[in-house]
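Q&A log
Question type: sequence-to-structure
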Amino acid sequence: MLSRLGALLQEAVGAREPSIDLLQAFVEHWKGITHYYIESTDESTPAKKTDIPWRLKQMLDILVYEEQQQAAAGEAGPCLEYLLQHKILETLCTLGKAEYPPGMRQQVFQFFSKVLAQVQHPLLHYLSVHRPVQKLLRLGGTASGSVTEKEEVQFTTVLCSKIQQDPELLAYILEGKKIVGRKKACGEPTALPKDTTSHGDKDCSHDGAPARPQLDGESCGAQALNSHMPAETEELDGGTTESNLITSLLGLCQSKSRVALKAQENLLLLVSMASPAAATYLVQSSACCPAIVRHLCQLYRSMPVFLDPADIATLEGISWRLPSAPSDEASFPGKEALAAFLGWFDYCDHLITEAHTVVADALAKAVAENFFVETLQPQLLHVSEQSILTSTALLTAMLRQLRSPALLREAVAFLLGTDRQPEAPGDNPHTLYAHLIGHCDHLSDEISITTLRLFEELLQKPHEGIIHSLVLRNLEGRPYVAWGSPEPESYEDTLDLEEDPYFTDSFLDSGFQTPAKPRLAPATSYDGKTAVTEIVNSFLCLVPEEAKTSAFLEETGYDTYVHDAYGLFQECSSRVASWGWPLTPTPLDPHEPERPFFEGHFLRVLFDRMSRILDQPYSLNLQVTSVLSRLALFPHPHIHEYLLDPYISLAPGCRSLFSVLVRVIGDLMQRIQRVPQFPGKLLLVRKQLTGQAPGEQLDHQTLLQGVVVLEEFCKELAAIAFVKFPPHDPRQNVSPAPEGQV
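Response status: OK
Response body:
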């Protein structure tokens, strides 16, 4: 079409130099636009019903055609010279601001986008282009749902594309009015040095062509244009409101339409540029990171004060690309606000994942300081149970979405602190960490369950500091092992059942039979399948036969737990493969001074909860055992030894998971005698829990439900121990899953 346009122009004028004809045609079209403001009296006619869009289209075609015909690449042709000299873009920008005729702003956005995209000559370095671009950015992105949203996002897309091609443009575009003011004050040229094309004030063409003829009515046209323009741009250039490409994109990100997705993609393009200089400028000289986090905080505050944790769970996994709440989910108050918040958090996480390292670290720190600490932490520390519930459930949902290493690092420091020394019973741990541990043993069972879910989610994150802070730092040096004691021959020797207050003569006479004494199983080296069998049987035989009911219902047995444990162990081993964990426990050093063992605040609260399994609600017991199972899966030899080895000789005053379970069994056997028709009631409760019997209320129901959980938990621990033996190197693949029962 452009070649046809050139041919028509040459044929109509009959001139030998097409550049003269192109310039004349270009000027005539601009003159036609200015004459509209002289001749038009109807201010209600939309711009698209005038000839303005057509004339702008012709001007664009002429500019592109002229550039294609230029013999010397990189030189500005006469029409482009005219566009720059006479500040046509600035005039159009002012007309767009005035919105005269109605819809003119859309036409201006479209013209700017097409000129910048289709004209290959670098334009953004020129002041006569840079100034109107900045003004146009300030015109857009001011209100969600603007009629020019589509045109605005297309305009920002072109700018981001240009910046991607030339990262040096980023600072020039983002500085906006500040760079213009400096250039004026310092008398600097209005184009960067690499663009040496001169644009004088004389009305002459580029190659010494004759001065263009004075256009009739041009001065009148200028006066007419001025009468329709708003007061000139001192406010735009000298105002205090910071507005540039970043703020424009963030404004468009809040749109309710698909425009938001395109704006988010454009912002992602900016922060992911590989140029260190551009990344440093984004962090140090722009409001990019604070503005992104500020919007996250605004979305958080826009949600209802209380949200049901179950409702929050229905929206977990929302993506920033599809931030709307699923239509098939049940509606609840605050659903859309919650979906918007989780979608934007996911976007922040994605930005940090894809961004240049400099930007990623800065944005992660901004999220930690301005959102985690200043906004979320007061809710987690609040005395209101509703605030604690909502904020903890939201934090769990955010952790589930979190993928970026930089943000995960900040989240771990926020939740657990940075102390890596072993804990002591009377120390003052990190403030938030101490509160979260306390919430695991809260008077409100719902708060305890919600907080335990938070820790379970945390344990599934690929960050070594999590398991180290919660467990491993307290197991270093194996202070839980008795000094100078011989290796135990069986777990009876380890636990000294006869000396335990629960294991009295009357208790032993009541029918509790300890498992047959297993063969020798050294504490620090295991002898293949034999040791596996002994350790597995230690857990499987822990619950006495009169307290077992799963066999009566032909439910899935221990072998199903083995299958599930194998998959979870593979996943966990893969996650920790790069952490360089040892394969065997650290040998005890006789020269090391003995230190008292403290299992740590986290294990202490879990053991305390486990010791009360017969008196706690069913749902709470499920969550406690779920967290302990997650811990037992970690392929660290100290974790395995402390949580899954019944044969270790514990230091005085120490307890292990197995010793806690033994005490629970002792308590159970005493309480069984006080429950009439215990076997029948226990079987009925199991049927109720599996939906095979109506859920009628029974006496001792909490105790009976606890017994069911205890039986299943012991089978689960046995399965985990089985898939972990012999100890696997976490840096190697796990052997094929075992089949059948031991």
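Response note: The radius of gyration is 37 Å.
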